[in-house]
């Protein structure tokens, strides 16, 4: 039997948020879209192209969510490596990212993030002292798609400040309300003292 070569890391043909929501419909566990797509769900339109599709779940719910993707192969991602997970294998404690491969189509479909909060509490993984009620940090579109609030998405994006992150911040800034600005400013001051976005906020 011929073994297929590993899938290149850039072989993305990602689902849309709507497709992801369709596949996860009926589930009772917490999840939400994150990354650039979350900002676009908040904006109500697609403001730029997205090379991947990221969503987050509670780490303890991983066994439940893997059953939602019976046609995908799951891979643990960390330290620049992408390693296949066994059929009943859970990601190691230090792994917070799982890529889902469509073997038939030879592409990645979705990026599953693992977080250590609870159904009631959202926790910022880079500084667990930053936490808020999940109901406050997860919003829902008119179509029923949950997504992480823009101020939290920008907090994640602040670490890298790639061109797309700067563009996302510039588009979001005029729409952030006072409470969102204040929260993001406080978190940036704590997690990234002297960050360039602080003056803009």
Automatic annotation (TrEMBL):
- Could you name the domain of life of the organism this protein comes from? Bacteria
Specify the protein name.
Amino acid transporter
Organism equals Shinella zoogloeoides
Lineage, uppermost ranks: Bacteria, Pseudomonadati, Pseudomonadota, Alphaproteobacteria, Hyphomicrobiales
